[in-house]
Design brief:
InterPro entries: Fibronectin-binding_SSURE, LPXTG_anchor
Keywords: Cell wall, Membrane, Peptidoglycan-anchor, Secreted, Signal, Transmembrane, Transmembrane helix
Protein name: Fibronectin-binding SSURE repeat adhesin PavB
Organism: Streptococcus pneumoniae
Strand order of the largest sheet: 1-5-4-3-2
Strand content: 15-25%
Largest sheet: 5 strands, mixed
Order of helices and strands: HEHEEHEEHHH
Number of strands: 5
Length: 276
């Protein structure tokens, strides 16, 4: 009974119109910067579960390109005048990659593909690698894909653009220590200090030092030789067997001494007689 209306309500229906590929291509070419410089504070406060790495090395809907706290938000020229909050805490409005009030819900997808040792890394693993690399510039590619049955069709690349991203990393104590020259540590070279006992200093001429060193070395060698000689003599005496040969040798030495004394005495008498 069309005349019997039981209930009624007014509603608004928004039908998304199809966005042409040419529109997307022009938007990527005109609205995306060639390079960006990411402040160290952004990376320092970024969290793996937050929006910072959304769309980086993985595919998400194109309309999410420039949400608050996202790295890819910084790629849009419109971000220069837009607010930013770390991890999207302030829930600032997202920016449209196609321009104001242009929506492409479910029609296109995108990713920012990084090169180098950060390629393929996502979320916390990517943030950790950024921090480990220190301040560095990366090459990357913005790829926009079409859809197939409402899902990204990675074989259908609608638009692409090469960009350069410089990630600044806050310097830490480890980074500062790593900047020391290897020649300043572990060289094994110890500077000569002043010797209060001898009065020598590190300014002593090289020839004087060499001479002193040689003299000391010679004295030490001589002392060592004498000590070795005395030791050997003592050892020889201790090693000699206690036989009659030893006594005979000693007696022979005694007789020889007497003979020499007599000879010298005789020569003395002869000289005395000649003088007389």
């Amino acid at each position: 009974d069309l005349d019997n209306i039981v209930a009624t309500k007014k509603v608004t229906i928004n039908i998304n119109g199809l966005i042409s590929k040419e529109t997307v291509q022009k938007a990527v070419a005109d609205n995306v910067k060639d390079s960006i410089d990411v402040p160290a504070a952004y990376l320092e406060k970024a969290k793996g579960e937050g929006p910072f790495t959304a769309g980086v090395n993985h595919v998400i809907p194109y309309e999410l390109f420039a949400g608050d706290g996202m790295l890819t938000r910084l790629l849009l020229k419109a971000s220069d005048k837009a607010p930013w909050s770390d991890n999207g805490d302030a829930k600032n409005p997202a920016l449209s990659p196609l321009g104001e009030n242009v929506k492409t819900k479910g029609q296109y997808f995108y990713q920012l593909a990084l090169d180098g040792n950060v390629a393929g890394k996502e979320k916390q693993a990517l943030i950790d690698q950024f921090r480990a690399n220190g301040t560095q510039t990366y090459s990357a590619t913005v790829n926009v894909y079409g859809n197939k049955d409402g899902k990204p069709d990675l074989d259908n690349i609608v638009a692409t653009k090469k960009v350069t991203i410089n990630i600044n990393v806050k310097e830490t104590s480890d980074t500062a220590n790593g900047s020391l020259s290897p020649s300043n540590s572990g060289s094994g070279v110890t500077p000569m200090n002043h010797n209060h006992a001898t009065g020598t200093t590190d300014s002593m001429p090289a020839d004087t030092m060499t001479s002193s060193t040689n003299t000391m070395a010679g004295e030490n060698m001589a002392a060592s030789a004498n000590k070795m000689s005395d030791t050997m003599m003592s050892e020889d005496k201790a090693m000699l067997p206690n036989t009659g040969e030893t006594q005979t040798s000693m007696a022979s030495i005694g007789f020889l001494g007497l003979a020499l004394a007599g000879l010298l005495g005789g020569l003395g008498l002869k000289n005395k007689k000649e003088e007389n």
